[in-house]
Amino acid sequence: MPEIDATDARLLLALTQDPRASVMALSQRLGLARNTVQTRLVRLEGNGVLAPLDQRVRPEALGYRLGAYMSVQVAQRGLAEVSEALAAVPEVLEVTGLSGATDLLVHVVATDADHLWRITETVLAIPGIQRVDTALAMRRFVERRVAPLLERAAGERPD
């Protein structure tokens, strides 16, 4: 992942504040040429700095009101295959490899408790998975955010 400079950070921060801003509006707001803004946006998208748009959609709006985190222990040689199989489960939002006793942290969503049970059975049926512990997400206190880091990178927030 390429690092971004202060100008990129200012551009991304402006986009977080107004995601629908046009290139022209961004260029005026930041005091940059329109072509500079356009070129930087294309580069940021191409380099994977900007996450896909579907990550902004809340699962709750699609009827998936129950969230959970599964701590998964995997037979070590099967990590790649297990990760691939988990990616094929639509309710799996994210899979993160961890150090320690738990190998993977799997964020899932479900419509209700019965649906979560079926998802758990699906996950347990994946070859290579040895154990799954599930914890319900009760409340989110801090939403996923990057704005404070962008503010720091743009020089708008002290270290």
Automatic annotation (TrEMBL):
Top-level division of the source organism's lineage: Bacteria
GO biological process: response to amino acid
GO molecular function terms noted in the UniProt entry: sequence-specific DNA binding
Gene3D superfamilies the UniProt entry points to: 3.30.70.920, Winged helix-like DNA-binding domain superfamily/Winged helix DNA-binding domain
Name of this protein: Transcriptional regulator, AsnC family
Pfam families according to UniProt: AsnC_trans_reg, HTH_AsnC-type
Keywords: DNA-binding, Transcription, Transcription regulation
GO cellular component: cytosol
PROSITE patterns: HTH_ASNC_2
Coiled-coil ranges per UniProt: none
Organism: Blastococcus saxobsidens (strain DD2)
Lineage: Bacteria, Bacillati, Actinomycetota, Actinomycetes, Geodermatophilales
Record-annotated HTH asnC-type domain positions: 4-65
Keyword Ligase (UniProt): no
